[in-house]
């Protein structure tokens, strides 16, 4: 009986130890589940931070693109305005050149006509001088002939003198006509000179007014261009500031990304360590489950032994029935012991069933923990590869965008300098044209 009691106590202790180990296994599994939940929450927070940094970078890039668009539109408007003004000035200069060419042609024709009339007057004057010379010679001959000739000779000389007089009169008329033509020519030349002077004055006044208006318009355009240039400079400064802000945010983002990567690396290492610890603990739990199974088998073996002992006790009780009087008290104690043992057997069988169910649940939880650990390792590796890929892609994209922005800013500055040089050339050409007009 003492051996049976000892075995029952040992079985009770084994069952209690098995229950304690099962409770410890459940507690460890809950702790592992809580740790996995925390890791999943931390990974979600890291993903949220990464998406927020991505949104901030996209916002900075959009702001920079808007500033570049405004700068390009302003430069395009300035280029169009300068091109239109240059075309208008070129057209006006061509019209003025055509008018001046026509006036020069008219002046050349008038000068040619004046030269022709001058030559004609010179020829007529030469003829007049020759005629006067011949008249003087004829008068001298007439006087000489009148002294030595008779009337016939006088008649001949008179007729000759009459012819000479008529010829002289015709020459005088031609001279008068030439003089009148010369006077008319001189008057026309004076009128042409006056007209040319008036035209020049008119052109000068008109050119001066045009140039004054153009100068006012140019001043207004210069002011407009200066305002546009200030606006472009402001936009460029704003773009530089936004670029610096974007670069600063990018640097902050890179720092946060590096910290996040280091944190992720640490957490990955910790997760790997915890996964290894969880794997070791799972193995330990499996070992404990194996031990529990062994204990259950030993309990089953003990129960079988108890049943055999009960059978032995039953046989002993049958043998003791012969001496009922002597073993009445023992019989009662044996019956009570049997009842207690039966109740303990029932309790042990129910506890065994409960332990088997609990062991199955523990096995299922261990399998789930292993699956979660495997899934966590896979997600960690995936996140690590995604973080590496995003880091390389972000670095390349940021460097490419920075180079593109610098290139666009340099091109904008070069275009502004070229527009300034073009405006300076136009101003010098206008000044030269005004000087030429004033010289005429």
UniProtKB/TrEMBL annotation:
The UniProt keywords, alphabetically, are:
Coiled coil, Repeat
Region described as Disordered = 20-43, 158-193
Residue ranges that the Swiss-Prot or TrEMBL entry lists as coiled coil:
222-288, 320-429
- Whether Repeat counts among this entry's keywords is yes
Which InterPro entries does this one have?
A: Tropomyosin
Q: Which PANTHER family match?
A: TROPOMYOSIN
Q: Which family does it belong to?
A: Belongs to the tropomyosin family.
What is the role of this chain? Tropomyosin, in association with the troponin complex, plays a central role in the calcium dependent regulation of muscle contraction.
- Could you identify this protein by its name? Tropomyosin
Its source organism is: Macrostomum lignano
